[in-house]
Amino acid sequence: MIYLQLFLSFVQIGLFSIGGGYAAIPLIQTQAVDIHRWLTMSEFSDLVTIAEMTPGPIAVNSATFVGIRIAGIPGAIIATFGVILPSIFIVSLLAYIYRRYKNAKGLDSVLGCLRPAVVALIASAGVSMFITAVTIDGTLASLSIVALVIFVLAFIALRKTKLSPILIMVVCGILNVLVYIITELI
């Protein structure tokens, strides 16, 4: 039964995550955290971090991670297959349609209508992750000033310098560990 749930959940994610990996993040969160409770919000934030750091698409990495966590290697295979199956069919169909009607004026209008939806999905994922990153229990009432300061410093460093985002992530992790150690000693 768990294999069927994994497969169907990730088929839905693969089917409705138009716009790529970042657009899939809120869908993965809905399935893995909200509906099935396979992960906590904190574990989901870790999942997104791991999925972004490892090579490959975020949705595929996330499916593999959730699948292996819930049902081992078979779960990883089933969840990963579930998330890529819709893409196989949709891309094949779109390639056929595009080749056949690539000069039609209406096609540009359809593609233009999808852009705002993709931006909204990515913004939703960003806001969710931001709230998780700067709060203790996911509510704004438990805002962590230290986490917010680290976030602001990282954001400024990314925007104003040419430092590697990976280096900035490592420094943020080290800062967070140091703050944790200091608060535990006090």
Report on the architecture of this protein.
By secondary structure, this protein is mostly helical. It is 83% helix and 0% strand. It is built from 7 helices and no strands. The chain has helices at residues 2-16, 21-35, 41-53, 58-101, 105-134, 145-160, 165-185. Helix 1 (2-16) runs antiparallel to helix 2, helix 3 packs across helix 4 and helix 6 (145-160) runs antiparallel to helix 7 (165-185).
Give the quaternary arrangement of the chains: single chain
Residue runs with pLDDT of under 50 for 5 or more positions: none
| Structure annotation, total helices | 7
Shape summary = globular
Q: What is the H/E order? A: HHHHHHH
Share of residues in helices: over 70%
Strand content range: under 5%
Give keywords.
7 helices, mainly alpha, 186 residues
Summarize the topology.
Elements (H helix, E strand, L loop, with lengths): L1 H15 L4 H15 L5 H13 L4 H44 L3 H30 L10 H16 L4 H21 L1
Helix pairs in contact: 1-2, 1-4, 2-4, 2-5, 3-4, 6-7
Concise summary:
The protein has 186 residues and is mainly alpha-helical. The chain has seven helices and no strands.
